[in-house]
Write a structure and sequence with these properties.
The protein is mainly beta. Helix content is about 5%, strand content about 45%.
């Protein structure tokens, strides 16, 4: 069974909701509303991490796109090997969703590699209905098959496949005995109905004329063939064979059902093993992954037909995420939430996929937190949809769907490229609430700022119908990066924006127009790119009689990209730059890059503050020396010294502890 820790008690009272698939990931899920209960929205990766006994354990990771994975449980095992395996160690986990849709089978090599590569004698069979609690049984070949396999020295990389012809589940694996002329061949056995034991003697399935290991079988509905992917020591790589059925026809030689396909599968000259093949969430293509075990990374390819294979990316293995020989399966939203509740890292980034320019809101109406952001990951910052994410603890975020689409009829004046939103909650005289969502979008020849209005933080939002800011007050720069601030002293609302300059103005009570003659150029004076020269992304908040103004310095892709600040006695300045103006900057030592464009959150009724910001995904660090478009949203604590100066924030990988907010009645 699974081990648990003190986190379980700590978070038992929290409502665990997860990050749903982000709109620009290739998931095929709906962009609005909740996905169907059977719809697959993410991928679960099962793997082990190395050759030491403490690394030969089953670990989990999650992904929204099937290529970029985040380890669960802080990279620690989710099943302890010494509780399931005769050797106390396991390798090569293969996971399969059963035909009933709710049962899962996992098989692993029962092996401690420190005893030698010819030291294992069996496998472990595991069964679960929730991906958390697993029943297990061991199969020790010298004990089960003393006459035929008493001298076995390898029982490697077992996997399970459903045999459509027999309606039974088959486990296939590589066997080798201590005979001098022996080499690894793939055999199979059927399993009993409880998935606790193999049935009958192992039956020969396939070999390539030399050591043949690490088999993976998938069924392709398009060609109605089983595809066997395997590693061969003859030819040094991954190959495949196909068959109409998994077993040989009656009267024909064992293994004759397979037709070898010429050519290597892998798209590299590196040494590879542990191939895993999985149908994509869109149902139209396949993900092919394999372990480049000599070079310390995984490689991912895709295929539309299982005949041609296109390189996608290498995924570095570093820190606690050093996956070895594993497999992935698609999972549902409910399964994802269950895994995050049990094994969630509560780490940065807090949103799935690529998002930038985050705006955070605490809603007095709902008692929840909301994040609105630029959808990132598109060339030339070309995202056009805004999704809203909700949370009641700042850790677990639910994708509430697309609340504004700048390419749709929702925004008739825009042509897309929607950026850098902000939102303001305003209580009305009748006690109801209105939500004003401000953003910039491509209006054809230039960026302009618009607003959409709703009665709920999640919408539906109705665009005002035309931009509210179109022209630069200084004659240059883009009208982007809008922020709105309501002064707690005067209750008046102010709007700020500007690229290359900072402008501010008072908003009229309608929140959709600027008060005449209040537009003020507020660009902080002086400074160099090294410290506080204003570039974009103004953000304003109030604390203990001081108006704080934050902004981003330098280019998005520059190593010097960071947040600086100044203070004022008025919502429209002038601004006095702080003596130590840096609020947050990147930390290359911990592979944290491009930390900027932020919003600030105060926990209601408390002097407790957080900064929500974006950073550049570490796997896309090549963009740091050019504009970064693979950004992700993070959150960390913001603190002040006794004089009210902001203490420079050290960006973290772990993020904050979860909050327990009182529920709104």
């Amino acid at each position: 069974m699974m081990t648990t820790d003190s986190r379980k008690a700590l978070f038992a009272s929290l409502i665990a909701v997860s990050m749903a698939a982000n709109a620009n990931a290739a998931t095929g899920s709906a962009t609005q509303g909740n996905p169907g209960s059977d719809e697959k929205v993410a991928y679960l990766f099962t793997y082990f991490t190395g050759n030491a006994p403490e690394e030969e354990q089953i670990c989990y990771a999650l992904s929204d796109d099937g290529y970029n994975f985040t380890p669960l449980n802080h990279g620690n095992p989710v099943i302890k090997s010494d509780s399931i395996a005769l050797t106390g160690c396991v390798r090569d986990p293969h996971i399969l969703r059963c035909e009933d849709g709710k049962t899962f089978y996992m098989v692993v090599t029962d092996m401690k590699s420190s005893l030698g590569w010819s030291s294992n004698r069996g496998m472990v069979l595991l069964k679960s209905t929730d991906l958390i609690n697993w029943q297990h049984s061991t199969v020790h070949f010298p004990t089960k098959y003393p006459k035929t396999w008493g001298n076995v020295i390898r029982v490697w990389a077992p996997e399970t496949v459903y045999d459509k012809q027999t309606g039974k589940y088959m486990v296939f694996y590589s066997l080798r005995t201590s005979d001098d002329d022996s080499f690894d061949r793939i055999y199979y056995s059927y399993v009993n109905e409880d998935f606790t034991d193999l049935v009958g003697e192992p039956v020969y399935m396939f070999d390539n004329g030399n050591a043949t290991i690490d088999g993976d079988i998938v069924y392709n509905e398009k060609d109605q063939l089983y595809h066997l992917f395997y590693k061969s020591e003859s030819g040094r790589g991954i190959f495949q064979a196909t068959a109409k059925q998994l077993t040989a026809e009656k009267g024909k030689p064992l293994g004759s059902q397979w037709t070898k396909i010429p050519g290597n599968v892998e798209q590299t000259q590196e040494n590879v093993e542990g191939v895993g093949v999985c149908k994509s969430l869109d149902g139209q293509s396949w993900i092919i992954m394999y372990d480049c075990y000599m070079n310390g990374h995984y490689q991912y390819c895709k295929s539309s037909d299982l005949k041609t294979f296109e390189f996608v990316q290498n995924t570095k293995t570093e820190g606690k995420f050093t996956p070895r020989h594993g497999t992935i399966i698609p999972i549902t939203q409910a399964e994802k939430e269950r895994l995050l509740k049990e094994f969630g890292n509560y780490n940065n980034p807090i949103l799935p996929g690529y998002h930038a320019d985050p705006e955070i809101l605490y809603s007095n109406k709902t008692g929840k937190f909301y994040i609105y952001s630029t959808t990132d990951g598109h060339k030339h910052w070309g995202g056009w949809k805004f999704n809203v994410f909700s949370s009641d603890n700042l850790i677990d975020w639910t994708d509430e769907g697309t609340m504004l689409d700048a390419k749709s009829d929702q925004v008739k004046w825009a042509k897309g490229s929607a950026w850098a939103p902000c939102i303001e909650e305003k209580k009305q005289k009748d006690g109801s609430y209105k939500y004003y969502f401000y953003y910039s979008a491509d209006a054809g020849k230039r960026k302009e700022i618009g607003v959409a209005i709703a009665d709920s933080p999640t919408g539906p939002f109705i665009d005002f119908g035309k931009p509210i800011i179109s022209d630069s007050p200084v004659g240059y720069g883009q009208q982007i990066d809008v922020d709105v601030f309501t002064d707690p002293k005067s209750k008046k609302s102010y709007i700020y924006w500007g690229n290359g300059y900072m402008a501010g103005a008072e908003l009229n009570e309608d929140m959709t127009s600027l008060k005449e003659n209040t537009i003020t150029v507020m660009t902080p004076k002086g400074g160099t790119l090294k410290d506080y020269a204003y570039r974009e992304a103004p953000y304003v908040f109030y604390r203990k009689g001081i108006y704080y103004f934050l902004w981003s310095v330098d280019d998005t892709g520059s190593p010097n990209y960071h947040v600086a600040y100044g203070t004022s006695k008025s919502p429209l300045g002038p601004i006095t730059v702080a003596k130590d103006p840096i609020v947050i900057k990147q930390d290359p030592e911990n592979k944290i890059y491009g930390t900027a464009h932020n919003s600030i959150l105060q926990i209601p009724g408390k002097d407790q503050w957080y900064i929500v910001y974006h950073r550049i995904n570490k796997h896309h660090i090549e963009w740091v020396m050019g504009p970064g478009i693979h950004r992700e949203v993070c959150i960390d604590a913001l603190t002040f010294d006794k004089k009210g100066n902001i203490v420079e924030v050290k960006p973290t990988l772990n993020g904050p502890e979860p909050l327990q907010m009182k529920k709104k009645k």
